[in-house]
Write the structure tokens for this entry.
Amino acid sequence: MSSLRRSTRGSSRGASLRGAVARSEHRPFHYVDLHRTIAVVLLIVMAVLAALSVNGPWWTVSRVAVSTTTGQQVQNVIVSFNAGGSTSCSTYPTFWTPSPCTNISSTVTGPVGAFDVVVDVGLFVLLASSLGSAALLGIGIRGLSFGRSQFTLALVLALVSVVVALGLVGVGAAIGPGPQGATYCAYLSANQTSCPTFVGGVNAGLIPGACGGCASTVHWGGGTSFYLVLGGGAASLLAWVLLWRGRHGPFTKEEQAEWATKNRPYSLSDLPPPPVPGSASVAAGGLMAPLPVAPGRSAIPFSSERTTRWTCRRCQTVNSPWASRCGACGDHRPADR
């Protein structure tokens, strides 16, 4: 009776192990790089920010008046130089007499105006390059790859979005407000400043229609679109760095298949046949015979109970609990790990 029990247990144990490996063999073995997924998200963020920046305020100058008795804001005027070359002016309250927006032009002239037109074109380039890179990477992560050139093109497009975004921000800050912006600053500040730099602020004097018993200040600097593009450029830069660092990782199906041969568990061909009832292995307690060692593999029998990652002694890389060789240097797994 005892021998029969051992025979049954040994057979079921062998069948269970072979079944587990069989299921592993038929399951797609896919290389996963979390950094690439993060890069896709960052590039999509860049695309969204670029879309939100189109025709938006690129540089602004504002005059704010605060009551000296209540400490509350009572007057405000904002002039925006928009991406695309237009200007906009808003006031609070709207019954300023005369309105500070009366002499504000509806378009930006000169080099700054020409650059603002270029900004809008650049925003569409940002939108296309970041979305294109994210799409190429996204379908590659899903297993749809037409070759290594797909990853290379995604890397190039990500770099394009970085260069364009940071280039627009850098050139915009270097050009500054220009003569037209300087004129508005002088007017709103009562000739206290002409906005000599891209960003700044100053205490303002009294202008027609403004609050006489208020403390007034004029501030100028990048508008909403400027800072959206700056943030998007930083996101694209981080995405490109992540992609560049992982550029040697497998991407195509052929590369992933080659990587899988070094990192997946033992195959069915590595396992011995199931024990025959009444054989020596069953009589010895139902244990299977030692697994054969395939050429190029370390002498580690596959075990469905292995759940601990192991560290390679040669390069100190932490590997999968089921890997028989180091995924970084290919060294064999030590027998004691």
